[in-house]
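Handoff note, outgoing to incoming analyst
You'll be picking up this chain. Sequence as last confirmed:
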Amino acid sequence: KQPVLSNAKKFSKRLIAVGGILLFVVVWFLRNTRFWANLQLMPNSAIIEGLRLKNHEELHKIYKDYLIKNLTWSSPEVKTSQSENVTPNPFRIVCYYITPSNLTRSRDLPPKSVDPYLCTHIIVGFACIQNATIQPRSPNDNQVFKTIINLKNINPELKVLISVEDFSSTGEFAKMVSSDVLRAKFATDTLKFLNTTGFDGVDLDWEFPSWPDADLIQVRNYTLLLEKFRHLINNSFNSTNKNFVLSVAVAAPDLIMRQSYEIQQMAAQVEFVNLMSYDYHLYSQYLPLTGPNAPLYHRNADLGYMETLNTNWSAAHWVEWGMPWAKINVGIPTFGHSFRLVNEDNNGWNAPASGIGKTGEGNGFLSYSEACKFITNPSTTHVFDDEYDVPYAYNGNEWISYDNPISVELKARYVKNNKFGGAMIYSLNCDDFQGSCSPLKFPLTRIVSNILTGN
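Most recent structure output, in case you need it:
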């Protein structure tokens, strides 16, 4: 006869049984998911960025929520497809042209050499802000402006915009947006500038509002500036029948997207946005590893935050957060980045690097012409990655990430197949405008133009 167990002993045995079941479930979960892989492979840059932002309470919460969501398990790949907001042809082909005052001589594309039929829009960069007014960076730029604007005499369908640039969250842009009076002054002065010069619109290239300083009031002020521009542009159209274009150059990385823009409100004010879907990887002392400048997709080996560093993810999430497909120009670079390998035998993705490479002008930035010269060296090995859909090349300890005709074609077809508003080329200056490695001048831009126009 078995002894009768007391209620306390019965409860203890049940508790042990439940605990065993829970332990089994936890062990099964950890062994059969990518939890540990994601946790262990969390990028150093993300950890450092989280520590740096910890003093900003609101932003830190956003970042913490992001890490919890994206670094505890792998999110499914975002596939960009749609059944509405379809953009009718023609697609926009928006090309940045950089004036000589903003560039080194090797990329000094004479304005008279720009093909007026390659692009639907040419954005001339860059003007700056002084005392809440738009100003050329150099007196010589005024003649360059005239030459580019006169291309409209050859192609009347061409639109030419001026881009106003600021690379600081504490610079002239920040000062200007800080008050309603200065916002009104800048918007009014800019429209006068457009009327006087013959530009068809303005592109605002502020990199970036509220980043990295987490001054979130800048985000609201930036939206208010866009609203002021829209109000004045609408009034100008009603009185003069001139419909000026308002565009914004916008960030691709998730953290900057979330922190710098009120995307839905922005969408109501702008003609389109130019998504800077490049510079995902470049040499940094915080993450001294090789990586692709402008991958179209992520690789299966990319986990957590690293899965977000690609064109597809950025474009899809701009749509998810409120920007219509038809208003997004997906960025396609004609430039790349160079790295100096620590060990020339370790020459793939995520290879340790000790600094920037020497290809180009030694600043880690190289044009397609410079990349082309590098890869035609018989000692250079070039590889095309069919997960990222981009190439890389190496020779000794010199390593470059760049775009070539194949990767550019894939990006252009991505834009067309997913019916985005168009493509943004950065820049005409970095394309092979002399035809040094192609039978045709501007080969990369020409590929995009041919695909999106159906030629």
